[in-house]
Amino acid sequence: MAAWALLALLALAPAAAGGMLSFASYYGDHMVLQQKPSGAVVWGHGELGAVVTLTLSGASGLVIMEKTAQVKGPSGTWTTVLEPMDRGGPYALTAEQGLENVTLRDIYFGDVWLCSGQSNMAMTVLQVANASQELAAAARYPHVRVFAAAPARSSVELEDLEQIDLPWSIPTAENLGHGNFTYFSAVCWLLGRSLYEALGTPIGLVEVAWGGTPIEAWSSRRVLKACGLPEDTGSTSPYQHLSGPQTPSVLWNAMIHPLLNMTLRGVAWYQGEANTLLNTDQYNCTFPALIADWRWAFHTGSAGQTEPHLPFGFVQLSTYRHESADDSFARLRWHQTADLGVVPNARMPSTFMAVAMDLGDEHSPYGSIHPRDKQNVAHRLLLGAMAVAYGDKDLVFQGPFPTRAVLEVTRGLLNVTYSQELMWRQRDAQAFEVCCSSQTSPCQWLVAPVVAVGSHTVTLALSGCRTLVLGLRYAWAEWPCEYLACPLYNSQGLPAPPFLLDTLPAGNTAEGRELLLLPSSGLPLN
């Protein structure tokens, strides 16, 4: 890691020293630049006032295009946007300033994905299930290129990365499994590899992750202000056992802001565990706000080349502790969907989610909060990416979700209808609960046992709930089910996501009393 970091610092040193020509830190040999319809942004450092000529040439030396850009202040940078390019390569990219020139080689055009978050994103291929096979397979994917920024924090927005852990590289067992929680991200790699297999296009993967970090650290001041959070909490932390920095905006400043000129195809995000301890119930604001803000910032920073509704995929929290009475994980999962249960939705357009609550790993050597099955995580992200980012309208990418409920008052039954065909894996599970109340007693959550499962309907017994049913929830626990054994899946093997719904009377039908199901933000959660 030290050698890579030294290379990165040396690359930056000439520009810092006296206006000598260089590319920005995250451009290098073996990189992937975004393909058409977008144009790739290329920028770097030079002598103030000088003109930089940028030349893209093919393997034979044939010049494909030429661009010029003037070096401007106050920090002496030049920027240009390449004409949109078809996928493929290799190409050489040469920058010239007077008698100086710098050439990047083995450049490909494809799709560039940014992967960010905390330790479950930082877990490397070395740490996952079947790690040896995964590492051995690296050589089969020379057109999936990897890059990892070093963890860094700053109190001000930085123009360029200060340090790099892994410059752009062709994947090898060594750089995919450098160590624990270093590089390269398993979720990012497995997603990128799958995208390459599905699309046949070169894929560039940019890892920007730091374990033990809350969303506030990855958020700009705009996000914090929009959600009514303090923009500066100082350097002291109420949660000293969190391993990463918690000060608002410090990771945005040092690790995201420097990348805003980069043209991207999509983002993958795995974060939230730290926010089960910090500002949990603000996450239904901070997460949608971060997504919207990153989209605006990357679109603006790339001169409009990164699309304004940049596809944004994320992993819903997995599990941590068995038999925990704390519902902060359940609340955080709900808030990850902006309290709507499924994505994309009105508050979170162009997003997709990998449910992971059925991938718990109690015996993980890295702690149960770090499950080793990242293959299923990546597969579920892939389905969402293909549907949302690449427009496969026929692909099922999310599990079943309830659409209707009918109360059979005389029989004490609640029939819940789902959006998809159901596969029932765990018949004795106590995953459904109803909120019972009367005018004189507070809300109380009671288990509603499953008495029957049809192709699209689950029938629940309400024997313990003889009063008004005000709410319905599913899988509302820190560890709701065992490995690949939640109660409900669809026929594609995707788990039904957790939910918290208000149930409002909506009239009577021949089947019973119709209940309107509304995503809840106000029911007592305990």
From TrEMBL:
It holds the Pfam family SASA. GO terms for molecular function: sialate O-acetylesterase activity. One of its GO terms (biological process) is carbohydrate metabolic process. Residues 111-323 form the Sialate O-acetylesterase domain. This is Sialic acid acetylesterase. It comes from Geospiza parvula (Small tree-finch).
